[in-house]
Specification:
Layout: E1 2-7, H1 11-23, E2 27-33, H2 40-44, H3 51-54, H4 57-64, E3 69-73, H5 83-89, E4 92-95, E5 101-102, E6 115-117, H6 118-125, E7 141-145, H7 149-159, H8 172-180, E8 185-189, H9 201-205, E9 213-217, H10 220-225, H11 232-242, E10 249-254, E11 258-263, E12 270-274, E13 280-284, E14 287-290, E15 294-295, E16 315-317, E17 320-322, H12 325-328, H13 334-351, H14 359-369, H15 377-389, H16 403-411
Parallel strand pairs: 1-2, 1-4, 2-3, 4-17, 6-14, 7-8, 7-14, 8-10, 9-10
Antiparallel strand pairs: 5-15, 11-12, 12-13, 16-17
The structure holds flavin-adenine dinucleotide.
């Protein structure tokens, strides 16, 4: 048997595990995840009201329970064991660790209370154990910086009425907290023009369906100026302008605006921008969320360069591979991860050598000796079942938001 360790149980890790066992009957895979729960950004990134997208977890669930796949949850490579120890146990090690560190704008005021990076804010509403509890105060006006789908997710979660979260896994407490904010305006601000926005058109058009939100464009002339470039997003934006509606919350799209400062004494009061020809403006805000991308972080002794692990079509070096956001940065979708996994699995099936290593059995022995509390696939299934059972009738799940609470379920 050849033994492969995949570090990270997000979409890239899960798809790769699936493809590896399909590609070669003599490969066994261990999927090692630092949290007690799998699925990475499917659980902690994808918005709670997009359960259709999160449903891919069912597929990953089958993979983690498959015969030649073993899940090692609550095991962090670089903390619970060294990369060298892992490499000594497996014929190949794959980094599928994602890109968890959010990029900073590097402008004044970024640490003011009320300013969040999208990792913290999205992690907060998705119940990530490392994310801060979202405690907002009197948010009338919110500024969301970025022109990608993460910015749209954040704006939509803020814009929706409480009833629109039925069937989601947004915690009822947080739903009530968001509903308490006296929200009037959500500004979504991009530094480039509307034709360059990276929104998925379907996600942009979804704003039309929201119960309490109307969409405006701050400078409709910018849409005409970009007009000759054929862009489905431009058409959707022009549609919003052409068919205005009256609703209590306005979602206002701004383009060609470079953020220059977050301002406020004790907390955020506004965000300053510089537009075309140096024109400056300040948008009042009690909440700002920057959605400007992520970079990968070191995994044990392996250190990324310029936000990713340098690789040649997924290969870092002898017996070392990388996939997903750790390989190419924070772009691409979940279905795209499957395509990449298929290609890397084919390559690995052809070139990984059998060194007669101990694989999962050796890893389990080492971790038990070290007193690491492993959450295996059965353990995750118990946490999963407990989260579903305790959910309110209009929620599909009530997540445990601390590692301790997850481990507590295992003790019951
Ligand atoms: C806010 C947000 C919303 C998104 N919404 C969508 C959407 O609606 N549709 C869509 O198609 N795509 C969406 N995406 C993109 C999608 O989530 C990514 O393409 C995908 O998750 C990348 O997968 P990955 O496996 O590379 O990384 P991740 O999903 O980040 O998984 C990495 C995993 O590695 C683990 N890990 C990290 N370091 C270690 C370590 N040292 N030891 C052990 N484990 C470790 C992490 O805990 C994590 O579970 C969204 C992304 C974000 C940020």
């Amino acid at each position: 048997m050849r033994h492969v360790a995949i570090i990270g149980a997000g979409p890239s890790g899960c798809y790769l595990a699936d493809q590896l066992v399909r590609a070669a009957p003599d490969i066994e895979v261990s999927v090692i995840e630092r949290l007690p729960v799998p699925f990475g950004l499917v659980r902690y990134g994808v918005a709670p009201d997009h359960q259709g997208t999160k449903a891919v977890a069912r597929l990953f669930e089958r993979t983690l329970g498959a015969e030649r796949v073993r899940f090692f949850g609550h095991v962090e490579v670089g903390t619970d064991l060294a990369m060298a120890e892992l490499a000594a146990l497996y014929d190949a090690v794959v980094l599928a660790t994602g890109a968890s560190r959010e990029r900073k704008l590097g402008i004044p005021g970024e640490t003011l209370p009320g300013v969040f990076g999208s990792g913290a804010f999205v992690g907060g509403y998705n119940g990530h154990p490392d994310a801060p509890q979202l405690r907002l105060a009197g948010v009338r006006s919110a500024v969301v910086i970025g022109n990608g789908n993460v910015a749209l997710d954040v704006a939509r979660v803020l814009a929706k009425a409480a009833a629109e979260f039925a069937g989601s896994d947004l915690s009822p407490v947080l739903t009530a907290h968001l509903a308490q904010q006296p929200l009037e305006t959500i500004h979504v601000v991009g530094r480039r023009g509307p034709a360059a926005a990276k929104f998925t058109t379907e996600e942009l058009a979804e704003f039309r369906t929201l119960a309490r939100a109307a969409v405006e464009v701050a400078d409709p002339a910018a849409l005409d100026a970009a007009g000759s470039a054929a862009s489905p997003n431009l058409e959707v934006l022009k549609g919003f302008v052409a068919n205005p509606v009256q609703r209590p919350v306005v979602v206002c799209f701004h383009f060609n605006q470079q953020p220059t400062a977050f301002v406020g004494d004790e907390r955020l009061e506004g965000v300053e921008f510089e537009g075309p020809a140096g024109a400056r403006q300040r948008l009042a805000a009690q909440l700002a969320v920057t959605c400007i991308g992520y970079e990968t972080t070191a995994c044990g002794t392996l250190v990324p360069q310029r936000g990713v692990f340098a690789n040649e079509q997924g290969r870092i070096g002898e017996g070392r591979y990388v996939i997903g956001w750790a390989a190419h940065g924070p772009n691409g979708t979940i279905p795209g991860s499957r395509v990449a996994a298929k290609a890397l699995a084919a390559r690995m099936a052809a070139e990984v050598a059998d060194h007669q290593r101990a694989g999962a059995v050796g890893l389990a022995t080492l971790l038990v000796q070290r007193g690491v509390r492993i959450v295996d696939h059965g353990g995750w299934q118990r946490i999963d079942a407990a989260e579903r059972t305790r959910a309110a009738s209009d929620r599909c799940r009530e997540k445990f938001t601390s590692v301790a609470a997850m481990l507590q379920v295992m003790a019951q």
